[in-house]
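Reading group handout, session on sequence-to-structure problems. Before we discuss, look at one worked example. The prompt was deliberately terse, the way you'd type it at a terminal:

> structure tRNA (guanine-N(7)-)-methyltransferase

The input record follows.
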Amino acid sequence: MIYRLSDFHFPDRAARLYPDTPERPWVLEVGFGDGRFWPHFAATFPEPPNYLGVEISGVSLLKAARRLRAAGLTNAVLTKLPATPLIREVVPEGALDAIVVNFPDPWPKAGHTEHRLLRAPFFRLAASRLKPGGAVLLTTDHDEYFEFACQEAAASGVMAAELTDAPPAALETKYARKWRDLGLGANHARFVPTTRPPVPHGPITRYPDTRYPDLEDSPAVPHAILTLPATFDPSTFQKHTGRGGQTREDPAGWTVVLLDLYRTLGRDAWVVLAHVVEGELTQEVLIGITGREDGSHLVRLARFGGPIITPGVKAAVGVVTGWLEAQGAAVRHRGY
Ligand SMILES: C[S@@+](CC[C@H](N)C(=O)[O-])C[C@H]1O[C@@H](n2cnc3c(N)ncnc32)[C@H](O)[C@@H]1O
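And the output record:
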């Protein structure tokens, strides 16, 4: 089954994602490509474990979904997201039996190593999300990345590496076959947590399911109420960037780019299209500016597109409110 980010809970539970098989082992695969690993690996268990697959390529997502459906693997959830936010926000602590990474992108050029997945912060996150006895299983043809990953695991201070043969299923993937045809071998390591460090979930919530009659009683949806000046002229809108939220744990913080503003037809309302970047997670959200009966306006994150309410999304409502204040609006209430 394909899940969007907004379909998950933060964190989620195996019992909710796999209601028919909650007691089975739970395996996460990062970068599943065309999905060949899982049918082979699942067949080595008496019953297919629960599977969560994460991949950033939409084409791969569709190919893998078809393959898993054809193999009758129903207790499988696939999603198109970067792996780190999925693992941090969706997977509960101590929940996974294995995190599988087959032939990760090696980023071989000098100066590109910061793009590699298997760095010390990833190993700390993985250690916090694995069950006792769980492991990160890495298979790669790339000797230099393999060395790098082993060094990063050691530097994380929470993983011990066991070098073993790759599971046969990892040698059946598209990339495994590609490198084998070129005569390259595969390295395999099993990284086993030595301790479970606390890596907390972020302050992320779902868009509420119920609609509230009185929006001022709805703090969960970021909003503001303000009075626009009679001189308000939306045609003065210009693309605008705001940054903030940097902390020691999250040095990147959030970046909000207000891309455009559109007027709705027949109503006293506009929407702002905003691009929100928080580390690897990006969201395009709409923020409505809607006239109320008392003449004030409500600035509020719209449900459209299934947004997740993150610090950056709250900040986007603040950036829109700030722009309106700069146009002379008087803010009566801030709920973001
Ligand atoms: C070299 S391919 C290997 C694919 C597959 N595992 C195989 O062995 O055939 C690496 C895959 O990882 C995916 N990927 C890269 N970065 C990712 C990330 N941060 N989160 C999830 N998937 C990622 C890419 O889209 C690509 O499909």
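Points for discussion. First: Residues 30-33, 54-57, 60, 82-83, 102-105, 117, 173-176 surround S-adenosylmethionine (CB under 6 Å). Second: The longest helix spans residues 311-326.
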